[in-house]
């Protein structure tokens, strides 16, 4: 819990953006004027809106709710254990299930992260406890209302209601030989059905859909989705032995020696059926990408209850029973912390932190009405407060419901995209991959934009470097913000490295044990911006989208008209930059690319008065050598702008606009010194 203290998740800010728009009178929307249900938890968003309305820090308030929910989960799990297996009055009751949860790093992490997962788990356990009481007494206790709140907290609440009611129905039959009183079941089903129907009607009237947009964005179908779900389950059972043992419970039920000592076997079997049904659902929908088993968190208490029942069923007194609980606790701790989840959680946190910094930077560099396109739709848009296209489709129905699904690898929930649609909306700024952007395409929209000739022509790649955050200015006095055993982010022979897109500096420590220290470092932002000088060609570009030579001819005609008004250049300045270009060419031919870059940088600074097309042409040559396609396109475009009559520049630009991105990258020469 101490390691996770203060951690953020980017998706938290998606709900906060909806909540802020609601409080500010724009409605329950991500972008004002666009009604899209891009959040998963209605109750969580409304709770966030309440905190904002009360002028409280929403992250702090939601984290407090999460921590309180975690405490409730521990109490409810212990009470369920007492109820399912009444303790011996002569012995002290030890809540084995609660201890197992406390040993889980997944439980610790989600106890302090401002997401709805822990609240969902607490409401589920409370509803299940009331439903068990109804099963015992035959009287309605209100579990249907809690299950309805569960459905408002996450859509999976509907599945858990169905699984729980089916399991309890079986308990009545197994324990009494009949189905038992029908009033609690009928009341719960009626209340739940009316409440869910009301939610569906409201959703259809307000958003025009019966399911949240997140469902369409994340549940992509196909073999890849199932493979992702199976892989997620495999990772989960390795990181949580408690979950693995719980899933193997039928083997224990089959062993007569254990089955005869199990207390309440029918109820244990009912809990197992709920656990198994939910696990199969998670696998079928492709699971999740977030760290620490988020999708399995609601049923971890059930797994703990089942494992606790197996521990109690061991022969007593015996060495096996005496050692079982300490061994399980130690195994759960080690398995949770020995995985790569701590690193993934840290990266998720840094992504959100970087998004806040980049969002603040963008807010100062674009107009409030400018449209941006990103893959991280949380902290960056929340801080920037500008209209945003979510290129992964969580908050964009067109991308989430793309007519032709393109199969892509990658994380669950990150496979949607539609580069052509993004381009049609003409955002001013586009950031690939993560919060700070990247010069290489990663997700589907990125890759499609990289191959689109119009994107290459109209957008210029830029970079900006922000200084280290507070505490990272003086390297000699700076304290590490995190340490990890081993070298999870690779190693560097120099003992130092940097991750500029996360704003981090790394220091590697050898020996045994080896570890890595993380410090605040400069943050590099890489983004694509619409070139305002060519916006009058936009309609021609859309019309000639697939006719690149025809579009280049149109560009040349426009540039020729503009170039006729350009004043005469100074021959001496032209000769000076030409000499630098010739020297840079010799450096390129001798593979001294760093020297060539330095010479061309000097030539570019002197070219403001010379206006020689040779400088951008040689910059394009160097960029082709080093595999920087977008730099090459921008430079070749500038050469053609300065000399529209040159057929070589026209041919080069058409080729650079048409070449497949991957083919270009494979043919590039790696950057190296002589």
Largest sheet: 5 strands, mixed
Radius of gyration: 30 Å
In what range is the share of β-strand residues? 5-15%
Mean pLDDT: 87
Residue share in helices?
55-70%
Give the arrangement of secondary structure elements:
Blueprint (H helix, E strand, L loop, with lengths): L11 H12 L18 H12 L4 H27 L11 H7 L2 H6 L6 H21 L5 H11 L2 H21 L6 H25 L5 H6 L3 H18 L1 H7 L1 H6 L1 H4 L5 H20 L15 H14 L5 H20 L2 H23 L8 E3 L4 H6 L3 E3 L6 H4 L18 H6 L4 E2 L13 H7 L2 H6 E8 L15 E4 L10 E4 L4 E6 L5 E6 L2 E8 L7 H6 L4 H16 L7 H19 L3 H18 L3 H13 L2 H14 L4 H12 L2 H7 L7
Parallel strand pairs: 1-2, 1-3
Antiparallel strand pairs: 3-9, 4-9, 5-8, 6-7, 7-8
Helix pairs in contact: 1-2, 2-3, 3-4, 3-6, 3-16, 4-16, 6-7, 6-8, 7-8, 7-9, 8-15, 11-12, 11-15, 12-16, 15-16, 25-30, 26-27, 26-28, 27-28, 28-29, 29-30
Structural description of this entry:
It is a single chain. The protein is 58% helix and 7% strand. With 674 residues, it is an alpha+beta fold. The strands form 2 sheets. A 5-stranded mixed sheet has the order 2-1-3-9-4. Strands 5-8-7-6 form a 4-stranded antiparallel sheet, with no helix packed on it. Strand 7 and strand 8 form a beta hairpin. Helix 7 packs antiparallel against helix 8. The protein is elongated, with a radius of gyration of 30 Å.
């Amino acid at each position: 819990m101490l390691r996770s203290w203060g951690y953020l998740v980017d998706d938290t800010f998606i709900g906060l953006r909806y909540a802020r728009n609601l409080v500010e009178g724009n409605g329950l929307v991500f972008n004002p004027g666009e009604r899209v249900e891009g959040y998963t938890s209605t109750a969580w968003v409304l709770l966030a809106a309440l905190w904002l309305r009360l002028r409280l820090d929403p992250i702090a308030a939601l984290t407090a709710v999460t921590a309180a929910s975690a405490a409730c989960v521990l109490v409810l799990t212990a009470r369920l254990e007492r109820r399912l297996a009444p303790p011996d009055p002569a012995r002290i009751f030890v809540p084995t299930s609660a201890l197992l949860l406390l040993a889980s790093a997944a439980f610790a992490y989600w106890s302090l992260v401002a997401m709805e997962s822990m609240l969902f788990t607490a409401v589920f356990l409370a509803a299940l406890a009331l439903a068990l009481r109804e099963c015992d007494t035959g009287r309605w206790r209100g579990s249907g209302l809690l299950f309805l709140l569960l459905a408002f907290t996450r859509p999976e609440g509907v599945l858990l209601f169905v699984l729980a009611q089916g399991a309890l129905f079986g308990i009545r039959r197994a324990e009494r030989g009949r189905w038992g009183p029908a009033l609690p079941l009928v009341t719960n089903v009626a209340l739940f059905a009316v409440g869910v129907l009301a939610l569906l009607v409201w959703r259809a009237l307000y958003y025009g859909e019966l399911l949240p947009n997140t469902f369409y964005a994340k549940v992509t179908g196909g073999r890849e989705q199932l493979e992702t779900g199976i892989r997620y389950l495999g990772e989960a059972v390795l990181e949580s032995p408690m979950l693995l043992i719980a899933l193997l419970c039928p083997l224990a039920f089959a062993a007569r020696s254990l089955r005869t000592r199990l207390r309440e076997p029918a109820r244990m079997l009912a809990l197992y059926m709920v656990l198994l049904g939910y696990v199969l659902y998670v696998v079928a929908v492709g699971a999740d990408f977030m760290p620490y088993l988020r999708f399995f968190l609601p049923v971890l208490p059930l797994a703990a209850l089942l494992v606790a029942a197996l521990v109690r069923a061991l022969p007593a007194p015996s060495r096996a029973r005496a050692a079982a609980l300490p061994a399980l606790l130690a195994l759960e701790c080690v398995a949770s912390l020995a995985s790569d989840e701590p690193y993934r959680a840290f990266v998720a946190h840094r992504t959100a932190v970087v998004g806040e910094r980049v969002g603040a930077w963008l807010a100062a560099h674009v107009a409030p009405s400018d449209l941006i396109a990103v893959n991280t739709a949380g902290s960056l848009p929340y801080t920037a407060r500008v209209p945003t296209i979510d290129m992964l489709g969580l908050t964009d129905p067109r991308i989430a419901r793309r007519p032709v699904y393109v199969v892509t690898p990658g994380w669950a929930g990150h496979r949607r995209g539609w580069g052509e649609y993004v381009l049609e909306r003409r955002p001013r700024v586009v950031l690939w991959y993560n919060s700070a952007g990247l010069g290489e395409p990663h997700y589907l929209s990125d890759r499609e934009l990289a191959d689109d000739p119009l994107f290459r022509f109209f957008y210029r790649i830029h970079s900006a470097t922000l200084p280290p955050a507070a505490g990272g200015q003086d390297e000699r006095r700076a304290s590490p913000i995190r340490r990890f055993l081993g070298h999870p982010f690779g190693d560097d022979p120099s003992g130092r490295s940097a991750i500029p897109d996360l704003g981090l500096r790394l220091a590697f420590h050898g020996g045994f044990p080896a570890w890595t220290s993380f410090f605040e470092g400069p943050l590099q932002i890489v983004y694509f911006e619409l070139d305002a000088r060519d916006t009058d060609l936009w309609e021609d570009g859309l019309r000639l989208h697939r006719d690149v030579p025809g579009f280049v001819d149109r560009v040349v005609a426009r540039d020729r008209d503009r170039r006729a008004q350009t004043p005469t250049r100074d021959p001496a300045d032209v000769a000076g930059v030409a000499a630098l270009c010739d020297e840079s060419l010799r450096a390129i031919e001798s593979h001294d690319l760093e020297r060539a870059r330095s010479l061309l940088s000097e030539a570019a600074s002197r070219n403001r008065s010379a206006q020689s097309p040779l400088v951008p042409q040689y910059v394009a040559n160097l960029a082709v050598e080093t595999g920087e396609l977008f730099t090459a396109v921008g430079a070749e475009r500038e050469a053609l702008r300065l000399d529209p009559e040159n057929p070589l520049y026209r041919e080069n630009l058409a080729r650079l606009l048409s070449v497949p991105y991957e083919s270009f990258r494979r043919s590039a020469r790696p950057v190296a010194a002589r």
